[in-house]
Specification:
By secondary structure, the protein is mainly α. It contains 18 helices and two strands. Strand 1 and strand 2 (467-468) form a beta hairpin. It is found in: Cytoplasm, Cytoskeleton; Nucleus.
Length: 597
Amino acid sequence: MDHQISSLQTTIRMRSTALLETSCGYLLQELQMIWDEVGEDQFEREKVLLDLEQECLEVYRRKVDTANISRAHLHQELAEAEAEFTHLLLSLGERSLPGRPEKMSGTLKEQLDSITPALREMRLRKEERVNQFQAVQGQIQKISAEIAGQSEYDNSSSTVIVNENDLSLKKLEEYQIELQRLRNEKNERLQRVEKYIGKIHNLTAILGMDSSMIITKVHPSLNELSGMSKNISDSILAKLKSTVESLEEEKQKRLEKLRQLGRALKNLWNLMDTPSRERQSFCHVTDLLLVSSEVSDPGSLTPSIIQQAEAEVKRLDQLKASKMKELFHKKQNELEEICNKSHMEIPSQSEMDNITNLIKTGEIDHADLLMSMDEQISRAKEEASSRKAIMEKVERWMLARDEERWLEEYNRDENRYSVSRGAHKNLRRAERARITVNKIPALVDLLIVKTKSWEEERKKVFLYDEVPLLAMLEEYNMFRLEKEEEKQRQRENKKVQSQVVVEQENLFVSRPGTSSRRLSNGSLNGGFTNAVPINRRVSLSIQHLGSNSINSATQGISFIKEGRKVQGEKMFARPSLAHLRDETASVVSTFSGPLSP
């Protein structure tokens, strides 16, 4: 027991010594002194000391736990700071922060104190970057809303959601590029809107319409007096485009209408020879026919101008109706004059009478009729122009035929060489006529070549006063050849007659005693007396044949007209040359019969 007590005291002393070595040793020593003085039981003393030890352990344990918790919190804060810093670096697209070491050393608080400024700097950068994103995305939303047609865009009601996981400069640049694209699109749309509005102003001024009402009808914001920002959506642009197209279409309709009225006015003025002073009031309408570019004069296509032009055309149409018959006859006379001048075929009188009846009954359109007449006149002028060269040579041929006929009559005159007044003039004319007549064959051949060429080119027959010119020329050549042959036969007959007379005279001289077979002077003279009239009659008949075969232009054509409907009928009269040859032969036989031996 004593040993246990001594060991316990030793233990207490050791503890007391330990306590004395601590800051609480003085207190424990003071407690020991109190116990000694009081005489406290040793067991109670041990119990109190054990309680004190337990309480001290509890206090130490709580402090250690508190320290552990504090250390854990510091580790957590440091880890969170590191994670946040790393996240900020990634979200901002940066690799590191200048001035911050890659690896940290020292206590936890020192490490935490070293990362806090960098974290604060990164937070400030993030806040600044977020503000930049919000500004750019806000502008994008606003412009997108304007393009979409939301003119009244409210910034306060709209919330910009920024993706804080990607705040890099690259992403910010992409948003800025998108913003610039939208701004360019907005400017382009505004320019298109202004362009459309400008066109609407110009077109309405030309057409005499209210541009403000038309623009407001498209959208109220497009009116400058509204004070709103202009709507630039696709639907508004489509409406503006449609409005401009409809105005352009209306402009073209009115322009075409006025041009038709202008053409009608000019045609009516020209038909009725309207004086210039009456045309001046509608010169602005006819001037549109000369304008090849766009019509841009304000008020040039108003409905009132169209109504006035229509009223004038209507008035002139009524006036034209009363003068249509006169105009038709004027055109008809012009056409007949062209045809007569060029010896072309003239439209039949029955056809003209039918047209006149249609005019009276109103069954034919006046404009169509005059247009048809103008076309006929134009074709007639064109054909007359193509016939001009041939007709000039035909006229030369006709004049040459007249000279030929005069020369034949001159040659039949027995007194043509007598000395009389004017005989020398006839001689000179006869010389000129012979030169002209000698040129006729070449002229006729040239006419035939040119006429054939004309007919091949035109695919039609060349008519001269409704008679084929080639037929006339070929008939003339044939008659001229027959005439030359007849003259040759006449010369041969005269030669035979002269030989017979010479033989008769020689016979009378060589045989004077044959009175029974001799003809008396009276009978001989009588024979020649009878022969001469017969011979002269033959000559006159042949000359008459030549005169009829080469007739004047009017006589020949009138004769041809009577037989033009029969294709193969001859156009010039051909006397029976066989009869003339028989008559001449009978004359020769009359003289040669009694004188034969």
